[in-house]
Amino acid sequence: MSNKPVLDIHDKPTPLQLATLSFQHLFAMFGSTILVPKLVGLDAAIALLTSGIATIIFLLITQFKVPAYLGSSFAFIAPIITVASLDASGVAVNPGNAMIGSMAVGITYALVSLLIWKAGYKWLMALLPPIVVAPVIIVIGLGLAGTAVDMAMNVNGEYSVLHFSAALVTLFAAIVFNVYFKNILSAMPILLGLIVGYLYSIVIGIVDFTAVKEASWIEMPNFLIPGVHYELNVTATILAAMLPIVIVTISEHIGHQLVLGKVVNRNYIKDPGLHRSLLGDGLGTFVSALIGGPPKTTYGENIGVLAITKVYSVYVIAGAAVVAMLIAFFGKVMALIATIPTAVLGGISILLFGIIASSGLRMFVESKVDFGNNRNMVIASVILVIGIGGAKLELFDGAFVMSGMALAAVVGVVLNLVLPGREKGVTDAHDY
User: How many domains does one find in the chain?
Assistant: First the structure.
């Protein structure tokens, strides 16, 4: 089979090709991008709108050399849920808190990209080796397991066989599309699983279309202004919950750039450079937070579409971004998305969160982490127990709180730095 691209990076598709291929990328990212806001209480329309905006920003920063689509990041689900419950008294629900944290994440990306530009990237690889990143990824997946099962089984706090059946149908459909189907269908199991589960939910009568009938065809998304706090304890807790997760998301970003480079036969670490792609990711996240969108990340689903279709054109990626932004203003479409039952979301989350945890295990295997080495055993064990156990660190009479996966990530980095036997990193990235 030829490895020659159907459309290379800067090839311009015909109008018909642009339309069809852009929608293909839209479908690939759609399920995951709208799932995150629905899980954390943000607006799905804003998530779609900001995914398009962030993708355009990413393309601009990377000089239209990297055909990557940016969607909602799953790594921040638990931190967003945590910080949304904080205000000055620590009890009110305010999703604007998460936007402050997301803006800080974007700024952190920018600072790291500046360091990479000046000093190369290998210091970062030494700071975040697989023995630190892999168990934190496992914590992210398993830490959300209870949430997924509760969504799948319970309605208003009570067990429902009917809703659980919808969750199981959704889960089974997603598994079937992921395992048994090939080509483009295997690249979007989340979207297809949601569709099958939704159709089943309509048949059993647990979908209410009242809001769809009442919605206008064209509506403005519900923009969310970031929360501003003058209470040091609230701000510190928000930052402590969200910033440590960049340990995982930056590693994910590097992995995606390496995989994408192999797919399209480019070296994106060198050109346009890891510093540019990371800055594009961070700036996309920052701008997204300004209007209420979740943090962004490059999407493996869309990289999969590139690999399957051999259509690498950045014009197609930009087209998908524009379509996503337009759909965000269709009120009836967004109202229809809002009718997806919680059980269906729970069913897809069981698979999704499990895959997240399993990808951490896969990183152990692919990186050939030696658990006969006591140092590796200690680091992984401590991260897993602190993260899954929900350990909490409180300082200054509760003015600073760090818990769960955030605390586990920080502890993992510290252990990797202080325990003897760490491999020394090289700071020159230009010989990659």
Answer: 2
